[in-house]
Amino acid sequence: MGKAAAVVWDQSFLGYDLGGEHPLNPVRLDLTIRLATGLGVLDGVGLISPEAASDADIERVHTASYLNAVREAPSSAWDVGHGLGTSDNPVFERMHEASALIVGGSLEAARRIASGESDRAVSIAGGLHHAMRDHAAGFCVYNDCAVAISWLLDNGFDRIAYVDVDVHHGDGVQNAFYDDPRVMTISVHQNPMTLWPGTGWPAELGGEGAEGTAVNLPLPPGTRDGNWLRAFHAVVPGLLGAFRPQILVTQCGVDSHQEDPLADLALSVDGHRAIYRALRDLAETYADGKWLAFGGGGYELLRVVPRSWTHLLATVLDRDLDPNAPLPASWVSHASRLAPNWSLPSSMTDDADPGYTPWSGDADSPVDQSILNTRRAVFPLHGLDPDDRRD
User: Fold this and answer.
1) Is 130 one of the annotated active-site residues of the chain?
2) pLDDT tens digit string along 322-365?
3) What letter does residue 356 receive in the DSSP assignment?
4) Stated pTM of the model
5) Is 70 left (phi over 0), alpha (psi -120 to 50) or beta?
6) From residue 240, how far is each of 161, 245, 267, 375 by CA, in Å?
């Protein structure tokens, strides 16, 4: 990596707090930054504090009436609609301000790359990929990923690849650019028959004039590191090679972990580390090194998210951590005070082997059949042979 990577972070991100026992607890962000700091990943890195996004930028992908509803919701005595006030998206004080700051962080990360100051940038508070044009969904009020991509399209980029590795389908970003041939959205997620939001089938290929720019790779519950990586490498590199993006934007949700309480894939922290390294390599190979990374889902707050996203930060910064590195005693002490009855790991590994066997063209297992279904749906639209394992 030539230029120093940009890391966008401010404690104010913790204001995006859906409250009570909501799964999206901002403590996961705080613990990540504390762990990355304790392990030296952020030594000498000037963390970038963003400004809240303007209404004009948020309205790149959301309606003005929706912004008004979000702004007024905390003081409204009536049902505000727009997906607000539900168990997934409860209303909270300063909801607009906190959500606009998340968007601002993702925009600042995008600006650092567009300006040429950095080739890579990361905001772990971003990745709210479910929010739709006029309503909240899946813990997401504003879709920072889509806003950042829209901004990039107006600031020097006309071929953008978005790769979403969250366990849930990246539906909000797909919907935002479904008819736009300049943006390829690739989502690797749990089979939608078994998990919300129930979308993300291989047949969802993009709208008229943009066929082949929506790509969906659904995987069966219980998929582990090796099979996940087998599927990813059988689909994603070939498509990026054909699409030739100028920048790679990634949503790096870690709710694919075997301990996550909201989903059913079975990846490890070691598998997540392997994914980030693969994304970095793909950015170098196909996007001239330009990589914009966001966080996303992840609901095992102490054991998984901080370790996985510390590996993400380390990967973006080219400061890859030894998986066997012990967790700092100060971090363990702090986390133990937050959750005295929580069993904490001792190192940055789950002692899992993320090695995989490359896809050989067969369809003998459910994962292999998923690979073949996706390749047969989308590869011909890019002039690729779906049955040729060399793609």
Assistant:
1) yes
2) 999 999 999 999 999 999 999 999 999 999 999 999 999 988 89
3) -
4) 0.97
5) alpha
6) 7, 7, 24, 13
